[in-house]
């Protein structure tokens, strides 16, 4: 097996035995990027020199007897997560020349663990989208069919993992931005509990739902990364001061007798039949494994998309105010007044979808409308959260589709943003509720496009989700299948 195709677990076993070096596996990933990324467009910045230096340092640490962890494992980072000394664009021309002066906490933890950063990945501009078609640097192509989208907004990270350009990647999930591309690209994608992973050094989109998470080749690999990056951070006021469990401790536990809830509202009209078939096959597999499957109801689910698309643009409107052409990033040098600096820098530097969300959010927060829209959305969000929490007291996890369809053709929703927003129908509620959710491969359509299922768990119960997912992956072979590129 080529070294870039290894999982974290496989790579660590070989590294610990001295069969390979971090430099060799890093070069294999860099060679893969050089060979195929012109077709995929997953990577915005390649950190070749820095990566080889970090790999050499990892090999030196191993030579001194250090083992395990993520020492020497190459990874990629979504380009809205700050990396010291390396360009961070958030997929936007307004930050085309921005070099971060510090690392995000999740990146800092990975550096300390000896992981090797090899690339910053493409994304919808500032995370505004679900297809990675809204990047100022071009669309990300799905490795399984280059005519299709990779999903978004963490499409570059998902495509890079699926195409074996890295061993794992970091993404961010605000309303499905890890889970959607994970489903479309047949990788594992975890959105942890809100506050479980530090947001410090993450460019804010929707501060009340933004969550750094993981895209990996397996649920077991995901657990290994969570063991490194999870935990309290005094630099993040939303960070949870809770003990972090060893996510690998119970990952091999038998799941016989677990209770899986199937929300009726997630399986009604609007779900493509080819997706429904694979989800039902996954449910049957869990029954064979001894799980108890129970019907439940989440009637407020139907409000999750409209609630999300009021709260999200409102917070975007506030968070995007810092990109004004003054402090950093692109500034129009032809402007003749302060107002022109603001208008022309933002007008030229920001893309269409970002401008749309700023305008929607500004309207929803404006005098006379704030109570009717934003405050009402927050009240309904509370109902969604309470309903989700109540359901999860009755079962161990919820099982749902991730997306209503497989990956769709590039430009399919151009000119129809509402159709694109409706793709979030199954992922928004978990984000609004702040609970952990995982997208896991569960099959392929007749045309060979990946299909994922979503496992939603109790607050801070990532270990249970990963245990259930790992047992499913041991009983199936979807995670072992690779795209032909």
Note the main attributes of this structure:
two-stranded antiparallel sheet, 485 residues, globular, alpha/beta, 15 helices
Summarize the structure in words.
- It contains 15 helices and 13 strands.
- It is globular, with a radius of gyration of 21 Å.
- It has a domain of 267 residues: Amidase signature (AS) domain (Amidase signature (AS) enzymes, Alpha-Beta Complex), CATH 3.90.1300.
- Helix 4 links the parallel strand 2 and strand 3.
- With 485 residues, the chain is of the alpha/beta class.
Q: What order do the helices and strands come in, and which of them pair?
A:
Layout: H1 8-17, H2 22-40, E1 43-46, H3 48-63, E2 74-78, H4 105-113, E3 116-121, E4 141-142, E5 145-149, H5 155-162, E6 168-173, H6 179-185, E7 188-191, E8 211-216, H7 219-229, E9 259-263, H8 273-288, E10 292-296, H9 304-319, H10 338-349, H11 352-365, H12 371-394, E11 397-401, H13 417-422, H14 428-433, E12 437-444, E13 450-457, H15 462-475
Parallel strand pairs: 2-3, 2-6, 9-10, 9-11
Antiparallel strand pairs: 1-3, 4-5, 6-8, 7-8, 7-12, 11-13, 12-13
Summarize the model shown.
This protein has helices at 8-17, 22-40, 48-63, 105-113, 155-162, 179-185, 219-229, 273-288, 304-319, 338-349, 352-365, 371-394, 417-422, 428-433, 462-475; strands at residues 43-46, 74-78, 116-121, 141-142, 145-149, 168-173, 188-191, 211-216, 259-263, 292-296, 397-401, 437-444, 450-457. The chain is an alpha/beta fold and 485 residues long. The chain is globular and about 65 Å long.
